[in-house]
């Protein structure tokens, strides 16, 4: 039973919702109608390129429709939730749109997630199905599905793209039977994004048709996308940034082409840029470093590139300054969050703004407050906590009443956990973070979640995880461990232990340090600032990982 105080979705107050409609942000258009209108309008133009496959807008819609029939036959019904975990392949979009067609709500996991995360999403969402590839990047998702099914009893169906073994093959799904699809209301939840989180529990972000498609449409406008846009999707396809800022959906909104890149190697991305005459892509800062390094010994013709977006993590000015000269294109900084608010530098901003700020919000109705620890506004230009509410920022996480009480102000502002300042030009600079999280090259790690797992280790009496600066990823994680009766485990033992507990690889601490006891603040909380001060950044990164630039497998995904 779900406690009644834990609603799946917290709506916007009626008056604000009405304003968002009046202002033309919310247009009452559910995803299936949106896709059908695009198929009508852009018909035979190429919507999607995946390897040697090219789907027109019409084909994309056709795949979604026939798959929806198959998913219906499998027993999926409107209002149910399904976890979808696919890499950058065309089937992701076919299934995503098929689920939306059916009124089934996808929960979009990342390929890096493992049993701990997927099991938690499935249980929390009471997912009825789980959609996966057979294998990807050396990992067998069917084995993961078996483990997930054992611990999430609601999961009755597993659909596999590729060799299905005992599960339902994706290839068996498409059907032709005409089924009368229900029409989703545009102000209801279309799907769930995932939060990087800062607590031990998974957070699902309800996104409505109305709010998401507004952010997509406005983003496509800001980025001046057109039918000539060819977008290379290298970040994980379901992540909010490459999906909606303006991402694949924004490209389709304007009749352009999305090219999927399913490998981390810059050489593969460069070959696709040359072959498809890619005009536009989105990267995280660490991938920018990798690309700049790779560019110096690559002969590919990248002259079609007109714009590179960078976001997801702090972007050093020195690195930002290299983008335009190296790639002969414009740079745009993006500071966004799956919860909603997205900021962009504008294409015609002065260079100074583009290099040194993270831009300004999409909407005139994005409300921004920069406050001190007591929620009082700081002096103009000073640093503070960023609070926001607006036409595409959530009002509450899925079934998380007690967390929501802390994550939102009484006036419905979302506490982003980011520390920012507003510049004289009206742009935001992200200067730090108050939330207990490590931003590992755009991949967010909730310290409390990993600490919770480590506390089960017999040799760990207490533990606190903090970020340490890293020249490549921006940050890596260090676990300060108070040893129990057994000696302190070495890092590779800790890594094995956490893998066995089913944790995604990027959450495994990069460094383990013993400490006699954890320092406490005056109010008795663990003093993480004091722990961070104990760290000496430079030698650590070198000693534990060598040069990440030399290792293409350390591809960071947000
Ligand atoms: P999530 O809530 O998991 O979607 O992660 C969003 C968070 O990523 C933001 O709240 C920031 O902490 C971080 N982030 C995103 N873009 C940037 C950026 N351009 N610069 C610094 N931090 C960023
Ligand atoms: O980091 C993010 O989550 C992010 C970054 C840029 C995001 O969600 C977005 C743009 O939409």
Q: What is the rounded Rg?
A: 23 Å
- At CATH's second level, what is the architecture of the domain at 31-36 and 47-184? 3-Layer(aba) Sandwich
Do you know the CATH topology of the domain at 31-36 and 47-184? Rossmann fold
How much helical structure, as a percent, in the residues?
Answer: 25-40%
Described by strand count, sense and barrel closure, the largest sheet is: 9 strands, mixed
Shape, principal axes of CA atoms: globular
- Unreliable segments of 5+ consecutive residues: 538-558
> Kindly, what is the distance between the CA atoms of the first and last residues, rounded to a whole number of angstroms?
34 Å
The share of residues in extended strands comes to 15-25%
Explained architecture:
With 558 residues, the protein is of the alpha/beta class. Among the domains are: 144 residues, Rossmann fold (3-Layer(aba) Sandwich); 112 residues, GMP Synthetase, Chain A, domain 3. Strands 2-1-13-12-14-15-16-17-18 form a nine-stranded mixed sheet, with helices on both faces. Strands 4-3-5-8-9 form a five-stranded parallel sheet, with helices on both faces. 52% of the residues are buried. The C terminus is likely disordered. Bound molecules: adenosine monophosphate and 2,3-dihydroxy-benzoic acid.
